[in-house]
Amino acid sequence: MTINIRDIQHYMYCPRRFALMRVNGDWAENAFVVMANIMHENVHSGRHNVKSSSKIEKSSVALYNDELDIYGVADCVEFEKSAGGCAVPSLEGRYKVKLVEYKPTQPRDGEIRETDAIQVFAQKLCADYVWHCDSEGWLYYSDTRKRVRLPFDTDFDRYYALLTGLLTGMRNCFESGLIPPKPQGQQCGGCSVENLCLSKTVKYDVKSLVIKGEDVCESF
């Protein structure tokens, strides 16, 4: 089963959220989703396509990896001219490849969100597959206007094991068609599908039934 890279984040954050959205077809938006959508619309508008004597930047670049059966769209790919880089079809010369994913906010503790890192790591495996390179992964935070390089060169094996485990879990979820329970300790405050996931049951209230003019006896 082919998996969209953007869904990997949903599953890693909460398998139940992923299943509600992709298996059950549920969806809802909140302020965080809207803010991210606006930012990405700006990035993917094409205004970020830049060409100079040393670098070419392209936004909204489609990527895939047939071996892992995944695909997605990178916010921005930078091709820096480098004698030791890779050949890129339609471009003259050789290039070092950098993937830059845009995020609205930088974590206050300065740490890298693992859900963000795994998204870019999956993009890296796609870019490496397409261009036969060893691409770099970066996060750009809009609120601080800072870039952070992801440690794929030192933590490659850990990220690869994490990604393949997530892909296996996602495919098992699709095949079973079951909605898993909420993970213990899961933080749901910022989740856009919280109300769909944890719908609150209204407590039985005789007074409200009388006001509505319902037959109380039939309600028991």
Tags for this entry?
Lambda Exonuclease, Chain A; 38% helix; 8 helices; 220 residues; 24% strand; alpha/beta; globular; disordered C terminus
Question: What this model shows, in words?
Answer:
With 220 residues, the protein is an alpha/beta fold. It has one domain (3-219): Lambda Exonuclease, Chain A (Alpha-Beta Complex), CATH 3.90.320. The protein is 38% helix and 24% strand. Strands 1, 2, 3, 4, 5, 6 and 7 form a seven-stranded mixed sheet that branches. Strand 3 and strand 4 (70-87) form a beta hairpin. Helix 1 runs antiparallel to helix 4 (114-131). The radius of gyration is 22 Å and the shape is globular. The model is unreliable at 28-34, 200-204 and 215-220 (pLDDT under 50).
List the helices and strands and how they pair.
Elements: E1 3-4, H1 5-13, H2 15-23, H3 31-43, E2 50-51, E3 55-65, E4 70-87, E5 94-103, H4 114-131, E6 136-141, E7 146-149, H5 156-176, H6 194-197, H7 206-211, H8 216-219
Parallel strand pairs: 1-4, 5-6
Antiparallel strand pairs: 2-3, 3-4, 4-5, 6-7
Helix pairs in contact: 1-2, 1-4
